Amino acid sequence: MARKGYDFVAPARRVLIAVLVLVLLALFLFWRIDGPRAERMRAVFIDRTVPGFDWAMRPVTKLSQMIGGFQSYARIYEQNQELRRELQRMSAWKEAAVQLEQENAKLLAQNNVRIDPALTSVSGVVMTDSGSAFRQSVLLNVGARDGVLDGWATMDGLGLVGRIAGVGHTTSRVMLLTDPSSRLPVRVQPSGHHALLAGDNTALPVLDFIESADDVRPGDRVISSGDGGVFPAGLVVGQAVLASDGRMRVRMAADYGRLEFLRVLRSHPAEQLSDAGTLIPPPPDDFIGPPLPARLPVTDLPAPEAAASEAAPAEAPAPDADRAPAAND
Question: Which residues, in sequence order, are CB contacts of 31 under 8 Å at separation 6+?
Fold first, then answer.
């Protein structure tokens, strides 16, 4: 009968596992030792061991590079698609802008419109932000020395920023449209309704007192109306947006986060009428009924009409003598 051999596999496996655990424990303890000698030994061990495993890390490095390249390609593809859509939208806006420019030039030529040459500008550099938690303003390096006057409008390269609210000899303070004390009459296009832009110390000022709020939609263009003579009419302010609080607000066209240069528009007060002329005066307080137009003065009428009005009282028919006794009877 054959003798059964002894199995050495199980004991050898247990010995190898124990040795491996001891080696790993020793490496862990050695790696946790905080000392100059241990640090030098670790550096020498890494310098001699890691370069030899370059062949083993090469596939992992290539795989990580391939994954990074694929992710980069996916991002580039998405950006390319977004740029294509943006280009299509910009092409439509460009076509609309060209048509509006041609129509505007045609209308100006037909009406012989003269642009006010006095509406020029002086540029200044934003020195610092002189505002606070309750005031939104900036300082410019132009002032009375440059002819700047209080109340003039200021713009950046995109839209209306604010107005001059304090002038010194070499500097001036600009109160921004987001300031709580700022109120600006505006007009919403294309509906043409008037409203009041009120600053509330946020990046999105509120549109108040809208003539017809149902006709104003998000995305409508907001420009200055020129009412009250505060600002010139037609200056770009921004676009209407519907805020989370349900109120209609304006996203400013000016980049308030990067105000570096501002243009101060030279504007002059409107000419005052010294004589009302032949305007219809208001009716007296005790008048009941619709207002009646006032009669023109005799001196303002043409010569034949003036002569007729002067001769009218003389040519009035006299009372009938035959009818007077009958009336008395």
Answer: 42
- CA 70 from centre of chain: 38
What totals of helices (H) and strands (E) does the chain contain, helices first? 5, 12
**pLDDT tens for each residue of 71-99:** 889 899 999 999 999 988 888 888 788 77
Residue 74 is given by DSSP the state: H
Cα dihedral 140→142→148→151 (10° resolution): 0
d(CA 166, CA 135) in angstroms, rounded, equals 14
Six token digits for residue 323: 């009818």
Is this prediction's pTM over 0.85?
Answer: no
Helix (H, G, I), strand (E, B) or coil at 6: coil
Specify the CATH class of 121-265 in words: mainly beta
Helix (H, G, I), strand (E, B) or coil at 288: coil
Q: Where are the domains of the chain?
A: 18-114, 121-265
Measured distance CA(274)–CA(36) in Å, rounded? 96
Tokens of 83: 């740029």
Span 285-323, pLDDT tens digits: 666 655 555 544 444 444 444 444 444 444 444 444 444
